[in-house]
Amino acid sequence: MLRLIRKHISIGGGIGPSWLRISARQALQVCKLSTSAEPTQQSNVNEASLYVHWPYCARRCTYCNFNKYIRRKEDTERMTACLTRELKTLIELSGVSKIKTVFFGGGTPSLAPPSSIQTILDTLKAGDLLIPAAEVSLEANPTHLETSRLRGFRDAGVNRLSIGVQTLCDTDLKTLGRDHTVAESLRCVEEAKQLFPGQVSVDVMFGRPSQKLKDWQTEIKQIADLCVNHVSLYQLTLERGTRLHKLVEQGMISTPDGDTLADMYLAALEVLESYGLQRYEVSNFAQMGYESQHNQAYWQCKQYIGIGPGANGRFSRETDSSVREARIQTLEPDNWMFEVEKYGHATRKVTQLSTKDRLEEFLCQGLRTREGITHKAGLVVIESTP
């Protein structure tokens, strides 16, 4: 269990350095001493969050190893039909009657036509599943094409936007393989603030090749000056198999050392908090009341259903609500669609989570947050597992 704590307590869920990982002794002390926060309540078996994976991208970023596929002539109608069918199947399997948050991720979901997003949300509404105050988030790249679709996404039912700005340096955008410019990012953020007032988040990355601390201090202030309500701050991780990892391995480019990374993180923490963006999780900052409800559901180990190629889920079946299952969907889009059309869903792997499994997740997720974990909350996990 303690090995898992070391593995997972890092910036951005695996996107982070060893200097931020807590020791085993520290973890045990947190378990014993953190008693002031309210315990996480057992997730209602009739409630869940929904993650929707749109797998297509216009290009592959040099650092990315996510489950994504470069657009050719994807059949968006078929993909949308399969997403709605898998949604119906897993909703029926889980017995969930209320969806509290929805997150469209990818891939690049902002490349999906707004009509596809609306079809999925309409499916939830038709079954009286989506609660009136549901948070509906969508990840967007700030290209001109995707910015032009923002109004359509809002009209489809999206009420929160997460924009992949990543950096305000055009040279670094090219190094990262991004297909937008700084000017496009700024236009997208301004448009989003008009369409989604108070519900705009930006993703920004530090630890980029050849990045200097002084430049980062200037850049993070520029990010804060965008006047958004939420910032997700990620340290660049060199993932094996990516182009960027290969370039670093070959000595063609270099990235900041560990001490510089630590200084960059602390500099960002100081700047963002001075702008009223409080750190509520290792890599997430928000003004009070504007935290991501969907991500909090993950960190609080609540139920969520994942649909789409490679999506993950954690929920109990209606026939046995005492057992939480971890589910992984088929990765490759064409194979995933074939299985959904044949079986109604494309679940590739199902693992029943034991009490130990759930406690490990509880520790690894909870210790990422400002509230931390409590003994009482741990008992809730134990008592809800046979």
TrEMBL record:
Example GO BP: porphyrin-containing compound biosynthetic process
Record keywords: Chaperone, Heme, Iron, Iron-sulfur, Metal-binding, S-adenosyl-L-methionine
Entry GO CC: mitochondrion
Source domain of life: Eukaryota
Molecular function GO labels: 4 iron, 4 sulfur cluster binding; coproporphyrinogen oxidase activity; metal ion binding
Keyword match Signal: no
Ranges for domain Radical SAM core: 42-278
Positions in coiled-coil regions: none
Membrane-spanning intervals of the chain: none
Pfam families: Radical_SAM
NCBIfam families attached to this UniProt entry: hemN_rel
Family: Belongs to the anaerobic coproporphyrinogen-III oxidase family. HemW subfamily.
The protein's role, per its UniProt record: May be a heme chaperone, appears to bind heme. Homologous bacterial proteins do not have oxygen-independent coproporphyrinogen-III oxidase activity. Binds 1 [4Fe-4S] cluster. The cluster is coordinated with 3 cysteines and an exchangeable S-adenosyl-L-methionine.
Protein name per its UniProtKB record: Radical S-adenosyl methionine domain-containing protein 1, mitochondrial
Organism this protein belongs to: Dreissena polymorpha
Species lineage: Eukaryota, Metazoa, Spiralia, Lophotrochozoa, Mollusca
